């Protein structure tokens, strides 16, 4: 039997804690260290925190965590690339591969080319691969529609709709989409950049690159979903007139022509959830996942399943399109 891939978990918030049991069930993987900046977690057994990874004492410094000699760091900390870079730079310099849920890392070549080149050069010089992935971005609104275009002789436009019932999602996600806010407070937080799905722009450039397109501009419009009836869940309620979540529309243009459209709607109590890719071209082609995809479950699975592919990839900053095919590893 092959030696398990040794993992360092960086970031033990809600998503990190959900990810730990998934990583622990893979016989090809072994968690050997964990790191979080919360000083109250230092010295805590990972098994007590995440009900998995027993016997792993959570480190408070990177040097302590690296003493376990991990092969790969799984980073679930921030969404923004400029905030992620100081966290992963010393990890890369230690010769450790990176798999991160940072949304802006999924395809940063167009949105942040200078920092992308910096990360790529650092990874190449230390012979490691760096990947940003998850359910979205990383799969549903970029990799999946790009793969679906293989069935077409010509693609004119791409429409991706992700309609989610967020009732069962973790609390930070419900807060991120503005569930329970007044329209005024929703607008205030949107203006401050606190309510938005990060990654639509990166996904648009991902698809465009795979189709040989260069987008002249993109736009992102964020609006509240206001309910006219009370919506209740496990320990929470959204009253009529309040926001149940977010409706975000992303668009990518070549000249004045809209060629890529994203509809991202995540709201508690959202009826008829689904994920749909609609391609207009020759021929028209539609792929629908009735009921949609559970974001937390899929993100954890994709991250865990991507780890062997990252180790097998060429060194540098990678995307889901240029690493070996990610499948459900044993």
Key attributes of the depicted protein:
single chain; 330 residues; Dihydrodipicolinate Reductase, domain 2; six-stranded parallel sheet
Structure description:
The protein has 330 residues and is an alpha/beta fold. The protein has 2 domains: 152 residues, NAD(P)-binding Rossmann-like Domain (Rossmann fold, 3-Layer(aba) Sandwich); 150 residues, 2-Layer Sandwich (Dihydrodipicolinate Reductase, domain 2), CATH 3.30.360. It contains 10 helices and 14 strands. The strands form 3 sheets. The chain has a 6-stranded parallel β-sheet with strand order 2-1-3-4-5-14, sandwiched between helices. A 6-stranded mixed β-sheet has the order 7-10-11-6-12-13. Strands 8-9 form a two-stranded antiparallel sheet. Helix 4 links the parallel strand 3 and strand 4. Helix 1 packs across helix 10 and helix 4 runs parallel beside helix 5. It is globular and about 50 Å long. The model has no long low-confidence stretch (mean pLDDT 95).
